[in-house]
Amino acid sequence: MSKIILTGDRPTGKLHVGHYVGSLKRRVELQNSGEYDKIFIMIADAQALTDNADNPEKIRQNIIEVALDYLSCGLDPTKSTLFIQSMIPQLTELSFYYMNLVTVSRLQRNPTVKAEILMRNFETSIPVGFFTYPISQAADITAFKATLVPVGEDQLPMIEQTREIVRKFNSVYGEALVEPDVLLPDNKACLRLPGTDGKSKMSKSLNNCIYLSDTPEDVKKKIMGMYTDPDHLRVEDPGKVEGNSVFTYLDAFSKPEHFERYLSDYNCLEELKVHYMRGGLGDVKVKKFLNLVLQEELEPIRLRRKEYEKDIPEVYNILKKGSEAAEKVAAETLADVKRKMKINYFEDMDLINEQAQKYR
Ligand code: TRP
């Protein structure tokens, strides 16, 4: 069986370093591993509209931002198919058939949907499209017969829901769909990078993100103002590493080489942590180190972004080409699905002959 990757992001804002360690970096590694037959990366504009119905302009503006972030991280349109969800009408059609295989109570139990309903104050008036987006996400994944979906931890319930739909479809109509596996980040800090304010998640509305497109000055300013251990008041005080964003970021980003290069008094992160916990290590020193580490990681991304920014029409062209290629694949799957469901009436000669017999 072919090894196929599909994943994507809602274009509701620029991507930040949480997206980067949580999934973008891994995608580029997977892409460059050469182990996958096909890689589809989707800008999920239709899904973004499920909770932004009254603000389509936000989605429209952010498609290019996400595309630029993808390309600047090293996603390569000659190796990965980058496309826009709403350009693939087959996804909507698949969703419509999958809806019959999912119950309302099953959707109500989906932990991610539950959490998002609370977060958006949708309790009393949930848009139907939003409520059913896990079904549309199953269409996204299955349309491309994806075998692997690299995502953040919050997407686990979506993949589980997809697997259930696949099993149900295949058992009711016959094998047509592929059950995907999920691939989560392997480092705990990468699973959910906290905001610069120490809150559990980076989020634009909390204003606690470091964006991939931030200038070096912005990044430095954000790092120097980062949340650490509120009880670590003087350098001599023992500090806490747990729940200290600066150390969580170092867990996610620092490598042994960084110590050699920028902080050679220490061999590794563990030594730095031990010193911090013992007392005598100031926040500023740790933050300056984090700044160097992060700048090194972000610099090539920034440079690539500058290149692509010079030719924005070409970026749209990349998405157009990708969408055309993606549509072909989705169309094949849809045809397959309709054949299995026996709703391919006009190509079903058995059906036509059988009906003709009946009326002879
Ligand atoms: N739900 C994902 C997010 O919020 C975006 C997404 C849409 C997606 N369709 C997908 C991710 C299919 C993986 C596979 O980030």
UniProtKB/TrEMBL annotation:
It holds the Pfam family tRNA-synt_1b. It comes from the Bacteria. The keyword Aminoacyl-tRNA synthetase applies. Keywords: Aminoacyl-tRNA synthetase, ATP-binding, Ligase, Nucleotide-binding, Protein biosynthesis. It is an enzyme of class 6 (ligase). GO terms for biological process: tryptophanyl-tRNA aminoacylation. It catalyses: tRNA(Trp) + L-tryptophan + ATP = L-tryptophyl-tRNA(Trp) + AMP + diphosphate + H(+). Its EC number is 6.1.1.2. This is Tryptophan--tRNA ligase.
